[in-house]
Amino acid sequence: KMQEAVAEEVNKRLAKATSELQDKYASGAVSKETSVDGPTGQLYKNKEAEEAKKRKEKLKSKSAEEKNQQQQAALQDKGGDEEEDDEKGDGDEDYELRLIKEQRLKQIKQAHQQKLHDIGKGHGQYREIVQDEFIAEVTSSDHVIVHFYHRDFPKCEVMNLHLQKIAQRHVEAKFVKLNAEKTMFFVEKLKVRSMPTVVIFHDGVAVDKIIGFEGLTEGLPEGHEDEWRTVTLARLLASKGAIKKELIVDEDGQAADLEERLQAMRKNAFVKYSNLDCDDELELSD
Fold first, then answer.
1. Which of these, 204, 217, 99, lies nearest to 158 by C-alpha position?
2. Of the four listed, 18, 81, 95, 135, which is most buried by Cβ atoms within 10 Å?
């Protein structure tokens, strides 16, 4: 009987527990989870969802901010273009003049840099070189003028005088002289047969020659063939592409014009003084 009583009590408690459990499922209380550490706990799920929502909102806010910055940058670029267009539209003439000025300044700067570069290679002076230097000198510059001379020929001295002047004025080319007696190899190679001979090199290649005074004495009287002017040789070199024609300055002609004007002034002053009334007396103070 005792065992039956115990069994009956156990059955009652099981029935009660089962009934309570059914009530919990029916009311939804069983879904409530008090643990936040369990990987399947409801509170844990809710927390993860909340954090995911925050991350999503943060990314959305960052994306919106970046988009706003891009829009502002685009507006600034557009504004700059509009200002430039307005500037062009409001002052086309000033804008064009400014562009021309900037381009001209750039050209001047480049020309100055090229001039310094050429001077560093020996341009702007008339130098004597030796046979061992010949190849290096004629190949290191675009335009090179080489005078093959003989020390006992007076015509070579005349050529030296004029080449010296031209070399100082025309830095765009290199001017050198070479003693023909000491460089027989190149004399034969370049077929130099008379003195003076000026050989013109372009990019290291001999392209032309001036033999003696050919092309320089036109219009000079007999016996004065060595009295040609420096500008005559400069123009001949320019016609052969050795120097720039636009840089030629007729200093000899300018000097002659100046002397002519001075002579005219002296003559006018003399005539004016001669026409003074000779009866006029000059009063001198004691």
1. 217
2. 95
The rounded radius of gyration (Å) of the Cα atoms in the chain is: 51
Q: Determine the number of helices (DSSP H) and then strands (DSSP E) in the chain.
A: 8, 5
Query: What is the Cα–Cα distance from 39 to 48, expressed in whole angstroms?
Result: 11
| Position 83, amino acid | E
SS3 for 244? Answer: coil
* Buried b or exposed e, range 138-156, using 16+ CB within 10 angstroms: beebebbbbbbbeeeeebb
Q: Is the dihedral of CA 73, 74, 76, 80 positive or negative?
A: positive
Q: What is the DSSP string of 25-91?
A: HHHTGGG----SSSTT-HHHHHHHHHHHHHHHHHHHHHHHHHHHHHHHHHHHHHHHHHHHHHHHHH-
Quick check: pTM over 0.85? no
CA 118 to CA 144: how far, in whole Å? 11
Residues of the chain above pLDDT 70, percent:
70
Q: What is the mean pLDDT of residues 67-76?
A: 75
- Please report, to the nearest 10 degrees, the dihedral formed by the alpha carbons of residues 41, 43, 47, 52 taken in order: 60
Residue 113 to residue 152: CA distance in whole angstroms: 40
- Can you tell me the distance from the alpha carbon of 230 to that of 238, in angstroms, rounded to the nearest whole number? 12
Residue 71 neighbours by CB distance under 10 Å: 10
Rounded CA separation 59/17 (Å): 50
> How far is Cα 121 from Cα 281, in angstroms, rounded to an integer?
69
Nearest to 231 by CA among 207, 247, 214, 212: 247
Two tokens at 272? 């004016």
Query: Confidence class of residue 57 from pLDDT cuts 50, 70 and 90?
Result: confident
Distance CA 241, CA 175 (A): 14
